[in-house]
């Protein structure tokens, strides 16, 4: 098995799903270390669901990397480490809060989509969306296939949260909070989509269904929550959070929360899970987080000239093609110097 499956961190739970097709579900689920009994039970009972979630992992990892592509921490995965994000997940930083939220959201999104597309025996379209209803434009009839997000959220909560509900320490409370924020983010962007019926498209009758928005909207929302994440401490009863500092607001259910400050991610540090920024591309003219001064942490950068091929002089030909030339140019590329 892939070494990632041996991680003590929750994302290992998602990685086990990749292998359901080659090993029996009972053999696989019984031999993955670190799962609590509830997770093993659900794993054995729903191998199709596990496969669907595993196949959808690339979507939320890609989204995480898109959101942070120009930052010192760029949601980098570590293929040779014991889990996707290495020792980073042992911390309780705001980056870990985002990883848990976006992965929880990814499970909901993937599962709801698999249900709607008829890939699973255990679910399909939302059965509650039937009959008629109303919105600001008037009445409509439920039809089509509404994404069954409620079912996906229930399964995600039962399966993903099982380990944290067993632990109930400060880190478990943090994970549970961010898991829930991720699930709620998917539901937040459900859209009512409709098809018109009537003479000459008059839309005298509408058939509508609820559909999830593109996952990018969830990612953008969670990224904003990351920017405004609240540092917290566990309350005196051990049941919830208070703001870690007096001038911080009390976190809402939609906020991301974290317990400890992040490293600066400037240099490679095995203990903190930082891979450093040595060798990263930077923008010499930018004063933002992608600029060489910020990205390279004051260490300076190297300049190299590379050949770049782009499409140019594109012309439209009737009908219906676009022909372009391949244009070659020399461009300067800037990369951060490594630590001395």
TrEMBL record:
Keyword annotations of the record: Developmental protein, Disulfide bond, Extracellular matrix, Glycoprotein, Lipoprotein, Secreted, Signal, Wnt signaling pathway
Cross-referenced InterPro entries: Wnt (IPR005817), Wnt2 (IPR009140), Wnt_C (IPR043158), Wnt_CS (IPR018161)
Keyword Acyltransferase tagged: no
Principal subcellular localisation of the protein: secreted
GO molecular function, one term: frizzled binding
GO cellular component, one term: extracellular space
Subcellular localization, as worded in the UniProt entry: Secreted, Extracellular space, Extracellular matrix
Gene3D superfamilies: 3.30.2460.20
Pfam families, A to Z: wnt
Entry keyword annotation includes Disulfide bond: yes
A biological-process GO annotation: canonical Wnt signaling pathway
Domain of life: Eukaryota
Signal sequence, start to end: 1-24
PANTHER family given in the database record: PROTEIN WNT-2, WNT RELATED
Family as reported in the entry's similarity comment: Belongs to the Wnt family.
Described purpose of this protein according to its UniProt entry: Ligand for members of the frizzled family of seven transmembrane receptors.
Protein name as catalogued: Protein Wnt
Organism: Cynoglossus semilaevis (Tongue sole)
Lineage: Eukaryota, Metazoa, Chordata, Craniata, Vertebrata
